Amino acid sequence: MDFLNLPKRTKKNRIYGLTSIADFGIPIGQLQSILEDYSSFIDIAKIGIGTAYVTPNIKEKIALYKEHNIKPYFGGTLFEKCFYQKKISEYIATLHALGIEWIEISTGTLNIPLPERLSLIRQLKEEFHCIAEVGSKDANNTMSIADWKNELECLLNAGCEYVITEGRDSGTSGIYEKTGEIKSNLIQELIQDLDTKKIIFEAPTAKHQMYFINEIGPNVNLGNIKLQDVLILETERLGLRSETFFLEDLACKLP
């Protein structure tokens, strides 16, 4: 069907308007079936937390994502585990061996000082496309708005292609309150002063997704999307759900 006036969506290969899914261990056969129908809506696949380390047929899963023009990478928790055990060189060698071209530098569990993360990014950007994450998985560990802005700016200036705002798969930390409520004052400050095309907002629930779509536009970058929600999210982006019904009036917010 192609007769409605809908918000204009970016197309693959997108550089913004990204949908980044979280793969927490979906079997490869099931994944293949989903990608056959919905791969055009997916840009990035995070093989979440540390599951990549124990995923059966990991090479085949990586190849499947690449076959469907989706960029796979390993979750930041695995990076942090390697950092903690001083195994970064082994981690890098493994990523190269598996054909992984993207790497996440995060500090969700460990408190890795910003200068150390920036140094790693400056080194690794010669070998990988770098993504960094800002914010803690610990809901009690809060940051000021000024610190959020500073980290995002520093990480982008160091060479990150995108920076993720922490939200967890539960939507209860980072840019969210423990209750799951969005820290709207923080978000408004971030979108006012920073290039939102370079920020991936973790938005694991429909409520979170629709907030960002309505505030920023249909081509906001969203992460931690469940595979089963990919089609629903695209529907939301196109103003085909009640909560985003009048989205065509907001499409100019982000080209």
TrEMBL record:
Signal peptide: none annotated. InterPro entries: Aldolase_TIM (IPR013785), ComA_synth (IPR003830), ComA_synth_sf (IPR036112). SUPFAM superfamilies: (2r)-phospho-3-sulfolactate synthase ComA (SSF102110). Pfam families: ComA. Belongs to the phosphosulfolactate synthase family. PANTHER family: PROTEIN HEAT-STRESS-ASSOCIATED 32 (PTHR48413:SF1), PTHR48413. This is Phosphosulfolactate synthase. It comes from Perspicuibacillus lycopersici.
